[in-house]
């Protein structure tokens, strides 16, 4: 049984999705989705434990060994990413029902939960597969379902945002497909490990170079790396609250994971960073992105959009860590994926609570909500502290690791710029705190009730996580360090 | 013109034409101001990528990777005679050696001299075509929805309407309400926004 | 044979450029269908009959039908745009240039010694002869067996698209409390 866990991870949500459609009843569909997402979370924890004990798990689908068949590969990195992606997916579903009832038509609920599960399937599939073309297929599953989920937003701008994301996302996916094709042309295989072993380093570098660039550009679109982030603010702003919580916390992270795989698992850092000056380019893009996006966040009147720009900035920190290509930097990048998923997931959940009670995500409509919705407002403050990176929060851990890694490499300017950029985060988090606590409440806010416990409890669980993993790093930073060591060790 | 360059051109012109096709599709997507035109461009872009893959699979003098029945039959018979490759050899992880051996043994069978083109790119593209049509279907559904809500599928027009509604960051959540109060009152279910730009 | 290929390639390029220039969306959709058919013909010559059939059925058939039915709902004329085409043109030229640069190290067209045809060894055709007990079509063998999970994924993509279209096209604003409440408030305000 245990040897089939990697495939169960995919097949369970995959089979549950059409079942949700067949059930056709909202409560039944919700219960099934909830159950399956928690089982998926359980399986991925089991996989983390198994990888810790026995090392890398390889699973040949259908018993066909690579390079003929498709191989699933669970190592410390992929199990780590799967753990937090499925974890967020599960907890957001606990949080979901009230918000979904409010924002999405009842007759659509069963379809909504089916699509949610499909999105989860796609994301998990991208993590677990060791086959490059299979990554493309799962990427499309997760993308198509997220376009549909985003289009369910409350305004007519939601379908438009979904469409624009679809066009940009499909261009990205087609670039990835071209990259995969060129790599296949030069190696004759689609299995990542096999490609890594067969990539002709001296022979035919031009094709490999172009293949690599196309893969990187395609993934940068999906990761929303500045300046290819244009789809993200609209998509996050106009999507239903629950969808934003889930997608913001997971989808870009999984693309970052795929990016790490491509650089360290296929093309080797030697080729990416020594032959190409990719590290300098990425560092510059990351820094510019952090500053531009953080500054943009300060000027937003819509809290969801504020957080969306902040997400673009946070992706910059991850890229910064990855582009250092030292164990320290890579660990920081990986652990920030996890920490940021928790923090941003929590913050968007808070936004969802406000949206439910106040019917708006505009900052002006939140004036004085600290009085009538104290717990929700406190949640924002807690999440905000973690986002800034105050000590004993998870955000501090990743920034500290990033900072030390930058100093180890002697990148003093980068370290200074990072500190400066945190000040920008202070500004945009403070703006909301100020509105919540130090403004005169409007009549509407005075009538508002505290968010329901069914939403507050999961939100606080996630926010508590940002503290737990800010102090106790066995299951975050240590796992990330193991993953980073595995990646750097595996490459010659 | 030296001859290596000419030879290269002769060997690669197929790919170059495919690239020109891909880029035409890409251009249509980037330069479009009409939503349907964007979908059309995406279609052409993707179809051209299919061509890129399929071109890779071709072997000069080869034929489609379909084994003539009589050859397949002869091979199957030969296999039974040597008694190899019954069930159980495909368990996890068994690869090559015995199959390589079997392959050598098959060399003198009829049809062993047929050159087949590579089947793998075809397989990948069958998957990609289906993914492509799924994307197209979803995109068109969104276009229909956008047309209902905005009354136009011209991107410039839509952005103008959005700007008229309010600041880009100030999403006016009441946009749909007009439409629905109207339709509740029994008026046309069509959207309230201007339809002057259509046609 | 060669001139047939040349003719198809020239027609493909011509069709693509025509689509780019056309403002009549109905005609553009038709030309996209033609483009798919031409692609399918070339795929036939490239020894990929399975892909050719699928492209003809899906690319030229289903997708044309879908687009035409969408056009029936949306109107079929593209407005002229004031924007300059220079930026997209530059992006496309750079991308295309990069791709052409990338082909320079590629094995030539049809080269039997290309890596794709040498690895894995034994090839899929030989493997499938042994594993599939005489199934003639190797593409089928790969699709359903060696890469069966890609096919499962592909089916899932179709399922996703189906559910998504249902989600998107069903109109439901007044069923949503969030929107209905706002509408109610607004009407009350208007009455007051």
| Cα-to-Cα separation, first versus last residue of chain C | 80 Å
* Strand residue percentage of chain A: under 5%
Radius of gyration of chain A: 21 Å
Overall average residue pLDDT of chain A: 89
Strand content of chain C: under 5%
Average pLDDT rating of chain C: 87
What keywords describe this structure?
heterotrimer, B: 199 residues, mainly alpha, elongated, disordered C terminus, C: 192 residues, 9 helices, extended
Describe the overall structure.
Chain A has 492 residues and is mainly alpha-helical. Chain A has a domain of 209 residues. In chain A, 79% of the residues lie in helices and 2% in strands. Chain A has 21 helices and two strands. A two-stranded antiparallel ribbon of chain A has the order 1-2. Chain A starts with a helix and ends with a helix. The model of chain A has no long low-confidence stretch (mean pLDDT 89). With 199 residues, chain B is mainly alpha-helical. Helix content of chain B is 65%, strand content 0%. In chain B, α1 packs antiparallel against α2 and α2 runs antiparallel to α5. The longest helix of chain B has 32 residues. Chain B is elongated. Chain C has a domain of 76 residues. Chain C is built from nine helices and no strands. In chain C, α7 crosses α8. Chain C is extended, with a radius of gyration of 24 Å. The chains are: A mainly alpha (492), B mainly alpha (199), C mainly alpha (192). Chains A and B meet through α5 and α6 of A and α1, α2 and α5 of B. Chain C: This is Monovalent cation/H+ antiporter subunit B. Chain C: It is a multi-pass membrane protein. Chain C: It is found in: Cell membrane. Chain C: Pfam families: MbhD, MbhE. Chain C: Keywords: Cell membrane, Membrane, Transmembrane, Transmembrane helix, Transport. Chain A: Its main location: membrane.
């Amino acid at each position: 049984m245990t040897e089939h866990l990697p495939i169960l991870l995919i097949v369970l949500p995959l089979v549950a999705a059409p079942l949700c459609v067949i059930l056709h009843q909202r409560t039944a569909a919700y219960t099934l989705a909830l159950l399956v997402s928690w089982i998926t979370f359980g399986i991925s924890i089991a996989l983390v434990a198994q990888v810790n004990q026995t090392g890398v798990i390889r699973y040949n689908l259908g018993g066909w060994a690579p390079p003929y068949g498709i191989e699933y590969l669970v190592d410390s990195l992929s199990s780590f990413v799967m753990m937090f992606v499925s974890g967020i997916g599960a907890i957001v579903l606990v949080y979901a029902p009230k918000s979904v009832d409010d924002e999405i038509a009842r007759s659509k609920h069963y379809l909504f939960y089916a699509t949610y599960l499909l999105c989860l399937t796609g994301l998990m599939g991208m993590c677990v597969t060791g086959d490059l073309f299979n990554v493309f297929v799962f990427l499309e599953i997760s993308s198509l379902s997220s376009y549909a989920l985003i289009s369910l937003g409350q305004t007519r701008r939601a379908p438009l945002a979904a469409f624009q994301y679809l066009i940009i996302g499909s261009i990205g996916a087609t670039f990835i497909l071209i990259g995969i094709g060129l790599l296949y042309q030069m190696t004759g295989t689609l299995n990542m490990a096999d490609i890594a072993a067969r990539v002709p380093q001296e022979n035919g570098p031009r094709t490999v170079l172009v293949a690599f660039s196309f893969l990187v550009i395609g993934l940068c679109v999906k990761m929303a790396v500045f300046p290819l982030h244009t789809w993200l603010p609209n998509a996050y702003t106009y999507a239903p609250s629950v969808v934003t919580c889930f997608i913001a916390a997971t989808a870009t992270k999984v693309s970052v994971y795929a990016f790490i795989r491509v650089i360290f698992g296929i093309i080797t850092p030697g080729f990416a960073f020594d032959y190409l000056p990719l590290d300098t380019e990425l560092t510059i893009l990351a820094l510019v992105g952090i500053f531009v996006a953080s500054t943009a966040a300060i000027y937003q009147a819509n809290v969801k959009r504020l957080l969306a720009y902040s997400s673009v900035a946070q992706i910059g920190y991850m890229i910064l860590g990855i582009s250092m290509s030292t164990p320290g930097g890579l660990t920081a990048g990986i652990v920030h994926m996890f920490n940021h998923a928790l923090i941003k997931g929590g913050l968007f959940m808070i936004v969802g609570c406000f949206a439910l009670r106040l019917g708006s995500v505009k900052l002006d409509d939140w004036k004085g909500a600290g009085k009538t919705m104290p717990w929700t407002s406190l949640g924002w403050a807690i999440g905000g502290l973690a986002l800034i990176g105050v000590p004993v929060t998870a955000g501090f851990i990743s920034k500290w690791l990033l900072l030390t890694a930058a100093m180890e490499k002697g990148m003093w300017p980068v370290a200074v710029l990072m500190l400066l950029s945190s000040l920008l985060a202070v500004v945009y988090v403070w703006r909301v705190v100020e509105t919540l606590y130090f403004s005169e409440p409007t009549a509407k806010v005075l009538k508002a009730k505290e968010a329901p416990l069914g939403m507050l409890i999961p939100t606080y669980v996630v926010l508590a996580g940002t503290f737990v993993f800010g102090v106790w790093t066995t299951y975050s930073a240590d796992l990330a360090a193991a993953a980073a060591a595995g990646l750097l060790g595996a490459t010659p | 013109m030296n001859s290596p360059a000419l030879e290269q051109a002769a060997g690669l012109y197929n790919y170059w034409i495919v690239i020109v096709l891909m880029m035409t599709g890409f251009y249509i997507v980037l330069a479009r101001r009409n939503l349907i035109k964007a979908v059309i461009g995406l279609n052409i872009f993707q179809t051209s990528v299919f061509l890129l893959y399929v071109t890779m699979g071709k072997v000069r003098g080869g034929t489609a990777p379909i084994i003539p029945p009589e050859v397949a039959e002869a091979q199957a018979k030969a296999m039974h005679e040597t008694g190899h490759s019954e069930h159980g050899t495909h368990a996890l992880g068994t690869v090559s050696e015995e199959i390589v051996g079997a392959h050598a043994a098959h060399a003198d069978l009829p049809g062993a001299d047929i050159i087949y083109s590579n089947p793998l790119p075809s397989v990948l593209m069958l998957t990609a075509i289906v993914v492509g049509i799924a994307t197209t279907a979803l995109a068109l559904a969104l276009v229909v929805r956008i047309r209902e809500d905005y009354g136009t599928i011209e991107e410039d027009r839509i952005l103008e309407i959005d700007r008229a509604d309010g600041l880009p960051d100030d999403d006016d959540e009441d946009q749909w309400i007009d439409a629905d109060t109207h339709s509740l009152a029994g008026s046309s279910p069509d959207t309230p926004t201007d339809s002057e730009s259509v046609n | 044979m060669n001139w047939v290929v040349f003719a198809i390639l020239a027609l493909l390029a011509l069709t693509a450029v025509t689509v780019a220039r056309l403002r009549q969306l109905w005609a553009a959709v038709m030309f996209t269908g033609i483009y798919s058919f031409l692609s399918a013909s070339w795929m036939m010559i490239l020894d990929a009959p399975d892909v050719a059939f699928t492209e003809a059925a899906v690319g030229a058939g289903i997708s044309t039908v879908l687009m035409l039915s969408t056009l029936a709902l949306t109107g079929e004329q593209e407005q002229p745009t004031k924007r300059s085409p220079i930026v997209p043109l530059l992006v496309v030229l750079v991308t295309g240039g990069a791709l052409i640069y990338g082909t320079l190290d590629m094995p030539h067209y049809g080269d039997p010694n290309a890596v794709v045809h040498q690895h894995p060894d034994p090839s899929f055709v030989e493997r499938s002869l042994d594993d599939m007990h005489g199934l003639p079509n190797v593409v089928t063998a790969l699709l359903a067996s060696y890469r069966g999970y890609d096919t499962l994924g592909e089916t899932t993509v179709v399922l996703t698209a189906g559910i998504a279209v249902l989600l998107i096209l069903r109109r439901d604003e007044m069923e949503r409390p969030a929107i209905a409440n706002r509408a109610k408030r607004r009407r009350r305000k208007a009455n007051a």
